[in-house]
Amino acid sequence: MSVDHYENFPVASVLCPPALRPAVAAIYHFARTADDLADEGDASTAERVQALHDYRADLAAVVAGQAPSSRWPHVYGPLAREMHRLQPPLLHDLLDAFEQDLTPPRYRDRAHLLDYCRRSANPVGRLLLGLYGVGDAVSLRQSDAICSALQLINFWQDFSRDGPNGRLYVPQSDLDHHGVTADGVLACQDGPAARALIADLCAWARELMLEGAPLALTLPGRAGWELRLVVQGGLLILDKIEARHHDSLLHRPALRVWDVPRLLWRALTMRAAP
């Protein structure tokens, strides 16, 4: 299944076993719709808050085995059919993150930002692992590292989109360390200090991704192969940022069709780090 948004997350791809595709698609449409309620269109903040409140009420109804409202049948019909496979607290965590997006804070330090990733990204990995029957502590920790890394990479990829919308995900401690101002990042002001900041942030995301990458080599079958592509896709975005000398305040890197052979080769030759 292709998606019509720009994020680099594969959804219910050909590598996903057919028996799991309805559940994967249900998770995707739940998260995608909630994200759109928080971020798309011309609604006021108060209207978005109310919409997410109603959306959460429908989730609670489905979890309780009750009928949801008729507002989002494309979400809660499929989700109700797959709820026996899912973990409701993780779905609520996602909604917590989308609500936070309505009035995004300035993040104090990296731990503060990772707490956001814990709710905005990590639940997706844990939900997918649950579908594959994987729940050991090591795999969950590695999944969290991959998902947090993907979220961070998306931030460092999207400066030119987030800045005009007043969204800043760079921790204040990193800004202070490099002598860069929040207003400068929001205005996408390029320069040596800003590029050094982005290089440092990308190194952090790469370290997290490599910490979680062994999970792609231990998951069996199609799950492992799809996760290899996810990991390598994230690393390739970081490579693209580095190749342009960390100018992502000016230029948004993206994966293109001609990157597919390189991604496939990287996935095929992926090995555990020494």
Description:
Helix content is 65%, strand content 0%. The chain has 14 helices and no strands. Helix 1 runs antiparallel to helix 3 and helix 2 (45-63) packs antiparallel against helix 4. It is globular and about 55 Å long. Mean pLDDT is 90; it is low at 1-12.
How much β-strand is present in the residues?
Answer: under 5%
The major sheet is characterized as: none
Count of discrete alpha- or pi-helical segments spanning 4 or more residues: 14
Give Rg in angstroms.
19 Å
User: Termini separation (Å)?
Assistant: 35 Å
What is the tally of beta strands? 0
What's the helical proportion of residues?
A: 55-70%
User: Quick check: average pLDDT?
Assistant: 90
Unreliable segments of 5+ consecutive residues: 1-12
Return the string of H and E elements: HHHHHHHHHHHHHH
Q: Give the overall silhouette.
A: globular
Structural class: mainly alpha
